[in-house]
């Protein structure tokens, strides 16, 4: 099995993470850390799989819209509401980075949208609770934009691929 990219919200600066950044609420109150790990095994219980192309340890600060499905709730990735949210993301002005978050090979567990300026709307927020946070330097880059409106997945073990098929 190959390495995977994991993302988790943690209380303290993470150890052995590939990239991490401090978080703040919109009013400036501390909100923990967001960290990414590149490894096979899940690094912490709350970690979810994320597209590794959005992670960059040299990344700038910005804003994140973090949508997380509550624990114990299962939403199939192929659910029409998830697919419509993805279509709606593609119909909007591009964000700096976007990735769905997966807990396993076939269940949507959330999404993260990274922007330079705060945005008040997120199509994924129709699916689960949303938090808007300021993110510090060192976690999110600027991957190349999608080449087209890909909706289909290749291999259920891969989060939202949009620029290539393996």
What's the total helix number? 1
The H-and-E topology, N to C, reads as EEEEEEHEEE
Rg calc: 15 Å
In the residues, how many domains can be counted?
1
Structural class: mainly beta
In one word, what is the shape?
globular
Which range best describes the helical content: under 10%, 10-25%, 25-40%, 40-55%, 55-70% or over 70%? under 10%
Number of strands: 9
Uncertain runs with pLDDT below 50, 5 residues or more?
A: none
Cα separation of the termini:
15 Å
Our estimate of the beta-strand percent is 25-35%
Query: For the report, how would you describe the main beta sheet?
Result: 9 strands, antiparallel
The chain-level mean pLDDT equals 89
Structural description of this entry:
The protein has 166 residues and is mainly β. It has one domain. The chain has one helix and nine strands, in the order E-E-E-E-E-E-H-E-E-E. It has one helix spanning 80-91; strands at 4-10, 19-24, 30-39, 48-49, 62-68, 75-76, 97-102, 107-115, 130-135. Strands 1, 2, 3, 4, 5, 6, 7, 8 and 9 form a nine-stranded antiparallel sheet that branches. The protein is globular.
Features:
mainly beta; 166 residues; nine-stranded antiparallel beta sheet
Topology at a glance:
Elements: E1 4-10, E2 19-24, E3 30-39, E4 48-49, E5 62-68, E6 75-76, H1 80-91, E7 97-102, E8 107-115, E9 130-135
Antiparallel strand pairs: 1-3, 1-4, 2-3, 2-9, 5-8, 5-9, 6-8, 7-8
